[in-house]
Design brief:
The complex is a heterodimer of chains A (272) and B (370). Chain A is an all-alpha fold. Chain A contains eight helices and two strands. A six-stranded mixed beta sheet of chain B has the order 5-4-1-3-2-13. Chain B has a six-stranded parallel beta sheet with strand order 8-7-6-9-10-11. Chain B has eleven helices and 17 strands. The chains are: A mainly alpha (272), B alpha/beta (370).
Chain lengths: 272, 370
């Protein structure tokens, strides 16, 4: 692929990290849909790669969480969530195959690795609440909002899959909210301080991932050059995904009861 | 913290939005470039931005919140009305959940909601006021003062009100019509114009209406601009030389390219808290960007004055209900707490010193114009 655009690939044959593969666009596709999907497939390939990586990381996080839970019901929940996230990763990978691309993942890519480290820090402290804050409030806000935006633009079953998974992730958040609201009620200041500490670690990393340009170099997930400049070709933009994610995050913090003027300052101070 | 009042507003320009975000980011972070702000601001949900404390000259204090609806400055047009009403409703929900006893609607917020108070969230503990009555009070006082400074007698003047059928415009018409020779009323809705003109004529003031400013039979020598315009785009081409022009819009009404030679233009509807105000974080001169300290728009000051007075009531609601009696009442309440007409100024700076009118002469002329 040249640097001039990701959509300059030959129809039906899409290069990916595993080499050139034949398109698996379903035979029933109209010519227009087929051409549209073929030309944008390398973009969706990278969007899906980020999604699969995020889902696999979430699965790893829930598995780790299950190991520090004392309550059998919480253990069961965490295990179930881990399986759910693996299912999401598989569903996204399958969507990639439908449009003729191999979707790779890289949970050791620089930003994802950093997010995992923060989560493992909470695990090491046996900090159940910290784990929920990182995974359910911060990472899931990012996932729910960005999947929902992608769902509006992605064609056919790809869009439907993003929409379905966004809705399922939102259910996770609802489950965690009840636990976290109860925890905040015990000591709001202590709780808010913890959210802020984790915000500085997690949201700063997410903000770098969502910035309009990757200033720290290649993210190690996109299969070639950065996908962000190509997103407008599928009616998306990095700015829009960032905006939607931060709005979802602020609304989630509002719902937890954190003061809006405080969380606004936190978000305003994130890197761009 | 007990919240006596909440003020709902939005930024009228990207420059203003940039300054607000610069304060929020703090001095240790580089200010965001305007392009980034344009990408980020539209996504921010309505929320409290800072705490505000207002002090009365009686020694009383009231504490409140400034809540920004984060309406993007370039989305004030009619095309965004539903989106903007949703934002104002969201801001109102923030005010209600903070248990603010009284909520003032600033700028476009009141225009969006003044005819639709039923669209605000269910009000359990908070009452809402558009704040328009105190805005009218300060516009009227400002016009009287500017005419006195300029040596213009209101009783011999022809008054033009642009945006005359709005809540503020019609309130100004009712207050000032009895003191002028003739009134010209301009707005988009002819039926409303006719009703207002009939009301003023029944009280003895000749009134002429036009939806097009070029159509009036005579030129005005006192003008109040109170239209709800998305940006400063008003051109006043047919006004008398040396006319007194009060731009009371938010955003401002008058276009920078308006050719009004010799006109004495001032920004109207502004009051000053002589007892002082405090913002936390410190947004002094950012949220209230004026050449004098503690100057705020009348619509927001109304909620503060009522909070200081302990009168948590929906003083201004709906459209077209502002009477001279209500204006006198809110002006008296505000004055009791040291909230009075702000020194006059315009885009070029303060005006009163520039006009150099001795205090005794000004007092005499004010009595004549009142």
């Amino acid at each position: 692929m040249t640097e001039t655009g990701k959509s300059q690939c030959r129809n039906d044959v899409v290069p990916c990290s595993g080499g050139v593969i034949e398109s698996l666009i379903r035979p029933g596709c109209s010519t227009a849909e087929r051409e549209s999907l073929s030309s944008s497939a390398p973009i969706w390939q990278d969007v899906l790669a980020q999604a699969v990586t995020g889902e696999l990381l979430a699965a790893m996080n829930y598995t780790s969480l299950s190991e520090i839970c004392d309550d059998p019901a919480e253990i069961a929940d965490a295990v179930e969530h881990a399986e759910g996230e693996r299912g999401h990763a598989a569903a996204f990978a399958a969507e990639g195959r439908k449009i003729g691309v191999e979707v790779t993942d890289n949970v050791n890519a620089r930003h994802w690795k950093r997010l995992r480290e923060v989560f493992l820090g909470c695990i090491a402290d046996r900090d159940f609440v910290g784990c929920l804050l990182v995974q359910e409030i911060m990472l899931e806000s990012f996932a729910v909002a960005s999947y929902a935006r992608v769902a509006k633009e992605a064609p056919g079953s790809l869009g439907k899959t993003f929409a379905r998974i966004a809705a399922e992730e939102e259910e996770h958040v609802d489950h965690a909210m009840a636990i976290l609201r109860a925890e905040r009620a015990l000591d709001p200041q202590l709780f808010d301080d913890k959210v802020h500490r984790l915000h500085l670690e997690v949201m700063t990393t997410l903000a770098k991932m969502l910035a309009k340009e990757c200033k720290d170099g290649h993210c190690e997930v996109c299969h070639e050059s950065c996908v962000k400049p190509s997103l407008p070709e599928v009616s998306l933009s990095a700015a829009e995904l960032r905006g939607a994610s931060l709005r979802q995050y602020l609304k989630t913090l509002d719902a937890l009861g954190l003061p809006g003027e405080v969380t606004l300052t936190w978000v305003a101070q994130l890197p761009v | 913290m007990e919240v006596d009042f909440a003020l709902i507003g939005h930024q009228e320009s990207w420059r203003a939005a940039r300054e607000v975000l610069a304060v929020l980011r703090g001095p240790e972070h580089t200010p965001l470039p305007e392009e980034e702000i344009k990408d980020i601001l539209p996504w921010i949900p309505p929320r409290a931005v800072c705490n505000v404390e207002v002090r009365s000259t009686t020694g009383a204090r009231a504490r409140g919140l400034y809540i920004d609806s984060f309406i993007p400055p370039d989305r004030l047009e009619t095309a965004y009305v539903h989106e903007n009403i949703t934002r104002v409703r969201g801001a109102a929900a923030c005010a209600s959940s903070s248990k603010a006893k009284i909520v003032g609607l600033g700028g476009f917020s009141s225009i969006l909601i003044e005819g639709n108070f039923d669209q605000l969230p269910e009000r359990r503990e908070s009452v809402f006021t558009t704040g328009n009555t105190l805005t009218v009070a300060f516009i009227v006082q400002g016009v009287q003062k500017m005419c006195a400074l300029a040596g213009r007698e209101l009783c011999r003047s022809t008054l033009l009100i642009v945006g005359a059928t709005g809540d503020v415009g019609s309130g100004c018409a009712r207050c000032l019509a009895p003191t002028v020779r003739r009134v010209l009323l301009n707005a988009r809705n002819v039926e409303r114009l006719r009703r207002l003109a009939a009301e003023l004529e029944a009280e003895g003031t000749p009134a002429e209406i036009a939806t097009n400013l070029e159509r009036f039979s005579t030129a005005a020598d006192v003008v109040i601009c109170a239209a709800s315009l998305a940006s400063p785009s008003l051109l006043l081409s047919r006004i008398a030389p040396g006319a007194v022009v009060c731009d009371a819009g938010y955003p401002k009404n008058l276009s920078a390219s308006a050719e009004i030679p010799g006109a004495r233009v001032f920004f109207g509807g502004l009051g000053q808290v002589t007892g002082g105000m405090r913002f936390a974080p410190d947004f002094r001169g950012i949220l209230n960007r004026h050449p004098f300290p503690d100057v705020v728009h009348g619509c927001l000051l109304e909620a503060m004055a009522l909070a200081l007075e302990g009168r948590f009531e929906p003083f201004s609601q709906g459209r077209g209900f502002i009477t001279p009696e209500k204006v006198d009442e809110i002006r008296t309440i505000a004055a009791r707490h040291g909230i009075c007409l702000a020194p006059l100024y315009n885009g070029a700076g303060p005006l009163e010193d520039a006009l150099d009118c001795p205090n005794e002469l000004l007092a005499h002329r004010l009595r004549m114009n009142d």
